[in-house]
């Protein structure tokens, strides 16, 4: 006989939030919570909640045994049953405000069983009456059970917030390669930055850890992605200030997106979707430890403001501080976000959300090689040591404000608009370590004055639904625009004297030099970048099997810049191009969708930097001409059993830009030839069995340089940074004999890549293993989740790109209480 019961915690859950959070205190709190929860006694009949007391339940559909465990944890009510009685039975779940008896009866709908109340306040099970067994299993008192994207559903989701102008299609019927990371996976991976999510996702290659520059950069289909979107609005800013704490899900589109999101983004686009207000009151507090002595507290609160539920709120707040696993490398973060919904009418919705984020950290060194030097093995360089100076820093203050409006004017016309504004103020000091032919390294150090970046994006679309005979249409027309303004200081940076002949055996530290005056003069507007896109498209449905998406985007890039405040503006760059897209979809059966898509995208030409590998660039500041990239993609998506499967074959043809270092001391930035990327993506998400969840996939990439004229030696070379393959697999196992316990683990295999254009500096392949566990129990009648993750279990040393080492092993702990 099994007894599912809550574990009482005799003392209240309490925490003190101070300006500095030391991980020692956090770890002690975690141990104390775990110890008290394990030592708790079953609730007595007198202590159990009244069966008539109403409370909020959120129990997803799934196995009946899992639902009963979750119910006992949330309600504090004891249920006794035989293992054979519930084996193989599925519960529809329950979501809403109910008494314990009402919630239980809902959980048993369609199972052939019913709960029987006992004198001690608990329940036993009995066979249901025939009519009870046939009651509807999905809807309870008007509340629809929500399982999309939950751990119980194996993180499967068929929702997508919309892909560019297209709205209303399910994920399966969207003719692009899109992966969705839902909120429960973010929570269970303890992803306080997006890094761990990109390590798990099978279509992204993490190349720049967020701790390095507060900007997570990834390769997608072999192209670097640096400008994410927020709630469908792209291009407002680089990824500084990226947060996960207020994110409901992350939607990862791989491949060209010219018609969808405007210019650039050749490899794909990442869209961060904000958490929205909840229909019922929601309170969640997490205290966590991220390694070293670094810890955090995160509060997440939501619910309705008025009795009718027309106004709702969602507040997220985070305080983080302490030294990380890297010696003398601290991360301090203060974050606050708010989201508010107003249902003006049943047809008109207004949403507003914003955030403030203050992020301060040290700065790891960039690694570079001079001509003739050999890249040292990653085993030689300890990633737990600070290879820059202790006084280096990277400080970013980020502010964001946005709004969305949607009005369903009638059954055939919908109007929608969005606006987003961001402002980042960042200041930094960094070290560059340049490895010499004799195996030593030289170090240069720079400090920069605060730099102000202001980004704004907006769109407005109208959707018109109509029929032409038996063919249905959803015609969408509108405008998407972005504007990024940069402010610099005239005396913006200072350089310290060069240090030479340093040993790779251990870092070498010096006192901070007297930098002199920098950043003392007012800042000034140095550049303005604008993009405008006029879009029209038609979503055509021929019948239940055949459909088509077709569209045009007239894109314009308009950049202005000046060298100093006294100069007049120069329109140094203005280019326009009309780019098309067309997709054909065929559904041979309802659970399988196949598609073929063609898309083009306009891209701004690159700008020559001042230095390349430490040498002055001969054409520094030169802006290259515009580029037009093309992509062909064919794919299939299927829902099979408990799994969501997808595959895509693609080819991207893009103009090539690179630094020609034939003469190492005189590199030149050039635009010459093409780079053609061909590959395949295979992904799988969902439940393999009742207890097993798998998330993973494989990307194979053949990327080559072609049509070289200026430098024939590059013909057939592989573009820098692009791995030939990466294979990701993450799994979870719900231990049958221990209700509430889930074990997890996985690996991230990234193939070899080249660090230079001539393919002489090789970045070896690497495999990183992760393991974890979580345990759900009841604390004073509320669900308490304890999580443990060990990332890079074997402490693998590796180069994540040509400038940075990958993260060392880190142990992450957290305790989450929902009430």
UniProtKB/TrEMBL annotation:
InterPro entries: Beta-barrel_TonB, Beta-barrel_TonB_sf, Plug_dom, Plug_dom_sf, Secretin/TonB_short_N, TonB-dep_rcpt-like, TonB_sidphr_rcpt. Residues 77-128 form the Secretin/TonB short N-terminal domain. This is Ligand-gated channel. CDD domains: ligand_gated_channel. Belongs to the TonB-dependent receptor family. GO terms for biological process: siderophore transport. Pfam families: Plug, STN, TonB_dep_Rec_b-barrel. Keywords: Cell outer membrane, Ion transport, Iron, Iron transport, Membrane, Receptor, TonB box, Transmembrane, Transmembrane beta strand, Transport. It is a multi-pass membrane protein.
């Amino acid at each position: 006989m099994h007894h599912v019961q809550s574990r009482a915690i005799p003392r209240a859950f309490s925490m003190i939030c101070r300006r500095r959070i030391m991980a020692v205190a956090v770890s002690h709190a975690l141990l104390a919570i775990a110890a008290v929860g394990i030592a708790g006694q079953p609730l007595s009949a007198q202590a159990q909640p009244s069966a008539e007391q109403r409370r909020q339940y959120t129990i997803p559909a799934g196995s009946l045994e899992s639902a009963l465990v979750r119910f006992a944890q949330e309600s504090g009510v004891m249920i006794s049953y035989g293992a054979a009685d519930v084996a193989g039975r599925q519960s529809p779940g329950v979501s809403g405000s109910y008494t314990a008896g009402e919630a239980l009866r809902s959980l048993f709908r369609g199972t052939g069983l019913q709960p029987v109340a006992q004198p001690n306040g608990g329940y036993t099970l009995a066979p249901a009456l025939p009519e009870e067994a046939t009651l509807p299993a999905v809807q309870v008192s008007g509340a629809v059970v929500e399982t999309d994207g939950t751990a119980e559903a194996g993180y499967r989701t068929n929702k997508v917030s919309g892909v560019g102008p297209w709205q209303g299609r399910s994920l399966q019927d969207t003719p692009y390669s899109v992966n969705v990371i839902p909120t429960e996976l973010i929570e269970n991976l303890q992803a306080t930055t997006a890094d761990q999510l990109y390590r798990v996702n099978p279509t992204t290659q993490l190349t720049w850890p967020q701790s390095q520059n507060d900007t997570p950069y990834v390769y997608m289909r072999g192209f670097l992605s640096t400008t994410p979107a927020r709630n469908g609005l792209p291009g407002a800013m680089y990824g500084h200030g990226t947060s996960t704490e207020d994110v409901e899900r992350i939607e990862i589109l791989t491949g060209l997106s010219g018609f969808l999101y405007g210019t650039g983004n050749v490899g794909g686009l990442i869209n961060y979707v904000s958490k929205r207000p909840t229909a019922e009151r929601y309170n969640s507090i997490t205290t966590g430890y991220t390694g070293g002595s670094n810890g955090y507290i995160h509060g997440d609160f939501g619910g309705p403001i008025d009795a009718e539920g027309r106004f709702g709120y969602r507040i997220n707040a985070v305080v983080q501080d302490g030294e990380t696993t890297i010696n003398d490398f601290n991360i301090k973060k203060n974050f606050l976000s708010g989201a508010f919904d107003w249902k003006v009418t049943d047809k008109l919705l207004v949403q507003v959300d914003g955030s403030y984020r203050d992020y301060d950290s040290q700065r790891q060194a960039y690694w570079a090689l001079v001509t003739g030097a050999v890249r040292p093995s990653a085993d030689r360089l300890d990633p737990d040591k600070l290879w820059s100076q202790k006084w280096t820093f990277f400080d970013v203050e980020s502010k964001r404000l946005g709004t969305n409006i949607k009005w369903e004017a009638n059954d055939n016309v919908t109007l929608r608009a969005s606006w987003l504004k961001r402002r980042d103020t960042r200041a930094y000091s960094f070290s560059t370590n340049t490895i010499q032919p004799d195996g030593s390294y030289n170090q240069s150090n720079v400090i920069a004055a605060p730099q102000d970046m202001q980004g704004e994006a907006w769109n407005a679309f109208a959707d018109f639904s109509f029929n032409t005979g038996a063919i249905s249409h959803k015609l969408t027309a509108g405008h998407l625009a972005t504007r990024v303004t940069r402010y610099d200081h005239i005396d913006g940076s200072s350089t310290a004297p060069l240090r030479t002949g340093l040993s790779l055996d251990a870092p070498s530290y010096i006192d901070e030099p007297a930098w002199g005056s920098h950043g003392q003069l007012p800042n000034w507007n140095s550049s303005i970048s604008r993009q405008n896109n006029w879009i029209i498209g038609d979503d055509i449905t021929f019948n239940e099997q055949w459909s088509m998406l077709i569209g045009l985007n007239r894109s314009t890039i308009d950049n202005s810049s000046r060298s100093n405040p006294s100069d007049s503006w120069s329109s140094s760059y203005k280019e326009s191009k009309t780019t098309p897209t067309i997709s054909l979809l065929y559904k041979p059966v309802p659970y399988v969708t196949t598609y073929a898509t063609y898309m083009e995208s306009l891209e701004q030409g690159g700008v020559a930097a001042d230095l390349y590998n430490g040498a002055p660039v001969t054409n520094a500041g030169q802006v290259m001409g515009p580029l037009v990239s093309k992509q062909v993609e064919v794919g299939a998506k299927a829902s099979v059993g408990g799994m969501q499967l997808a595959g895509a074959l693609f080819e991207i043809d893009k103009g090539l830009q690179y630094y020609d270092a034939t003469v190492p001391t005189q590199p030149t930035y050039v635009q010459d030839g093409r780079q053609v990327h061909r590959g395949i993506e295979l992904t799988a998400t969902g439940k393999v069995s009742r207890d097993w969840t798998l998330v993973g996939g494989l990307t194979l990439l053949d990327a080559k340089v072609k049509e070289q004229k200026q430098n024939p030696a590059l013909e057939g070379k592989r573009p820098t940074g692009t791995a030939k393959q990466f294979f990701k697999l993450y799994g979870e196992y719900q231990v049958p004999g221990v209700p509430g316990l889930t074990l997890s683990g996985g690996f991230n295999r990234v193939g070899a890549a080249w660090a230079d254009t001539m393919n002489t500096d090789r970045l070896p392949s690497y495999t990183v293993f992760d393991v974890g566990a979580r345990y759900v129990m009841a604390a004073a009648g509320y669900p308490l989740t304890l999580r443990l993750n060990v990332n890079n279990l074997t402490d693998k040393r590796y180069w994540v790109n040509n400038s940075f080492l990958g993260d060392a092993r880190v142990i992450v702990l957290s305790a989450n209480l929902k009430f």
